[in-house]
Design a protein that fits this description.
Helices cover 39% and strands 26% of the residues. It is built from 3 helices and 5 strands.
Length: 95
């Protein structure tokens, strides 16, 4: 299933990388964002990897959650759409 990113989700990634680059370095910020994108790309082969978002309870709206990020995505007939991303900017820099 093709993964597409909404404009809001792309801007959230750009903002995250900017914040991390200010706090750490451009290279570290880029690595963190690349790791996140790679994780989301795994959904292409495993679209139901994430859990249903509890506060909505709709099977099509799912999330990938780890200690630093929450990625919300929607299962559509033609694609998997990443609709939002939230990060704990302080935690995102931890290894």
């Amino acid at each position: 299933m093709k993964v597409v990113w909404s404009d809001d989700a792309v801007w959230a990634l750009v903002a995250l990388e900017t914040r991390l680059a200010q706090r750490y370095s451009s290279n570290k910020a880029a690595r963190i964002v690349e790791d996140l994108v790679r994780r989301v790309d795994r959904l292409e082969d495993h679209p139901q990897l994430g859990r249903v978002v509890p506060e909505y309870g709709q099977w099509q709206l799912r999330e990938l959650v780890d200690r630093r990020n929450r990625v919300l995505y929607r299962l559509r007939p033609d694609a998997l759409e990443v609709v939002n991303h939230r990060a704990d900017a302080d935690a995102a820099g931890r290894t």
